[in-house]
């Protein structure tokens, strides 16, 4: 009998005996029988439900998700380029049409681009960053990576070479006691049309079934490599799919979540091996209301799944007009929906930025809504004292950002599983830099050392 046939027979026997059901079938093809990888504890050894939905710990994960809060930072702009995080890297090309990683490879000499990327990868994040992250009382890093680091089979102009730096990051994290969530930040065709997907424009991930096939192959590579790793404890299947574009991309993404889960949970299934990974598998809310995902990929069919939501207040004219007190109360208003969600919830991206003033934040050549230089926007104020290195930030502005930080941390921990700040550092936008925020004093050296207790902020 094949492994899948054995799985079907085993499932029927388990159901008949009253044992909790194995993961459900998709079509006529069952998931493989759950067999723990050699040398690992039984995936059903710990069924405690501490601070979370039933079954979160049914997989013998290598970090106590659901029992200990995630406190982390994103390593943005390192292995997936974003012009607003490292504007100098883009300015040095001398070509204003180079706006993302696709054009970085397409619109300049290949050797020149490769050399620039090598210098960037070697210098932007180093072991000392991991040392500082650990010293700041954080326990996780979220590591964005592009699919092209492992697959450019369709002839995309991306440069490869990032994979060894993933290995380097994992080694540094292990040395300094940090855990790693590897996040696939991009999909073939682009899942959102944002520059952080590698290619700015419109999303085309959903236009070709082969795009999901290719992305699942990358998921499989990562899941095999880190199935029972003590440092890489979570895998994000895809960052920020823009499901608001319509039902087609929402349906395509929803199916990818299911298929991607199977690939990540049973990475050796195609070789006839039913061993499963111990990874926490993370899916994005895709900009849908959290309630949209209620009862999606839930126990007992799916185990150890988390929902990642992102929260910013700066990408519309209306949001940019909010006062500081309004911003704080908007965060407070997240308590109810976060607590009401039956899913394992983490806030994978957020910041204390209250403007879109960071250079190239809206991509190169676009300007800013806040100062009226973005097409269709109306000026609200000057960007001069709202971003940059922070040396000219007023004491009032820094004090607000401290309260904004404290409020968000407490809401995300009290009503969710924790958070990852975006981002660890930025070349010249202190309002987005955790590292620079600590230096300027609006981010505390200990993230749970609250100057502004939640009870004094949230009405």
UniProtKB/TrEMBL annotation:
Record-linked Pfam families: Cellulase (PF00150)
Chain residue ranges for the region called Disordered: 28-49
Gene Ontology MF term list: beta-glucosidase activity
Keywords from the named record: Glycosidase, Hydrolase, Signal
GO biological process: glucan catabolic process
Glycoside hydrolase family domain mapped to chain residues: 119-357
A cellular component annotation (GO) from this entry: extracellular region
Family: Belongs to the glycosyl hydrolase 5 (cellulase A) family.
PANTHER family membership: GLUCAN ENDO-1,6-BETA-GLUCOSIDASE B, GLYCOSIDE HYDROLASE FAMILY 5 DOMAIN-CONTAINING PROTEIN
Protein name, per record: Glycoside hydrolase family 5 domain-containing protein
Organism: Cutaneotrichosporon spelunceum
Gene name as annotated: exgA
